Amino acid sequence: MRRSTRARAVLLFATTLAGGCAPPHEGSSSCDADADCVAPFRCESGSCEGPAALADQVPAPPDDAPAEPDDAPPSEGPDRLGRPGLRDGAAYEIRRSDLELCLEVLDASDASYTGPSTPGDARQADCAAASHQRFWAREEVPGTFSLVNAHSGRCIEVFASDAARTNVVQHDCNGRPNQRWTTALLGEDLFMLANVETSKVLDVVGAIAAAGGVNGAPGDAVVTPFQGAPAQLWALREARDARFLSLAPLSAPGRRVRVPVPGGRALLGVEDDALSRFRAVPGLKNAAGVSFELKDQPGVFLREVESTAAAHPVVASVDDGERGFEALATFRIKGDLRADPVPEARMYESSFNSGRFLGVDELGQLATFPAGSGPALERQIFRVLDRD
Asked: Which domains are delineated in the chain?
C-alpha cells in the first residue's frame, strides 16, 4: 500500500532538506533507476527512497487516518512538495499543532534582540489574538517569506550572532536568508516552517504545554533539524478579522483617535466604536512599516497631508492619485523615545517626511510634527489597544 499523503509529504520534505532526492521534473519524485536519485537515496518502486535513518523520522499517520487506496493517483504540483501556506501581505497566527499555544514576541517588545537577557526573544505562549502574536507574510523571492511582527514591525530571524545558530528572535528587517522562511504542507492544514539559511525548522525547547521562557529555556522558540515532532508542525491561521486596533495617545487617557466624518480629519474622542478602529496592514509603500485602514471603510487609510504649516494634518482618504500617496499613508514603527520609555508604547514616523511623527495638537486633531520634548512628545506616543 502506498504511504499516506502526510507521510509522503514529510519524507519528501525531509529529503529535500537533506539534499537527497533530485526529482526528474518539478513536483515529482519518480525515478526509473538509482541514477535518477542522489546518493544515498535509491530508486524503489518508482520513487526515490531515503535510508532507514531518515525514514524512521517520518511520523506514523494517526490511527484514524483513512487509508489511501492503492489505485489513488499520485499527488502532483505544489501539494506534492507542500503547497505554500503563506500569502504575501496577509497576517497570520502561528499556532502549535498539538496545543493552544502560539508563537509570540516576549512581552510585546518593540526592540531588536541583541543577545541574552535583552528584549525581542520569541517563544510559545497562550494564544491571545494580540498584535505581538500576529505576523505579516512578506514574500522576498518566490516561495520564501519574511515574517514581520505586527506589533513591532521587526522580522523573525535565526539570530545571526548566536554561535549555535538556533535561537529565534526578532530583529530589524533586512531580507537576509536567516530572516527568510519556506513552508511545507505535512498534514491537514499543518505546516513546517523552514529557515532558508540554516535548513532547520521552527521548533520550541522541551516538551512543555505552557508559556515558554527565553534564551534556551523550555518553550523558547528555536530552529532544529527536522524530526517530525509535534512541536515542529504549525497551523498558519490567517488573521483576517482580528487585527483591529485603536490608537490612544499617552497625553489623553481615555481618548482614542477617531474619524467621525467619512474622508475627514482624524480627531480624538471618547467613543469606543467602529470609527475608532483601524486595521493594521503592511505599509502601502514599504511592508516593514504600517498603514491604518478604517475598519468599516475598506480602501480608506489615514494619510498625511503635505502642508507649509508646522503641523501636517492627517485625514482619512482613498488613494486620490496624489504624488506619494502610498508613502503619505505609511508609517515606520518606532519605540517610545523618552528616557524612561513605556514598553508597550510606540511612535509612528512618516514614511514620506522623515523626522515627522504622528501626534495630537492642542485641539485634539491628528497631525505629524517633528519629534517634540516633554509634554509635546507625550502627544506623539501612543498605546495600541487591540480590538475585535
From this structure: 5-79 (no CATH), 91-238 (2.80.10.50), 244-387 (2.80.10.50)
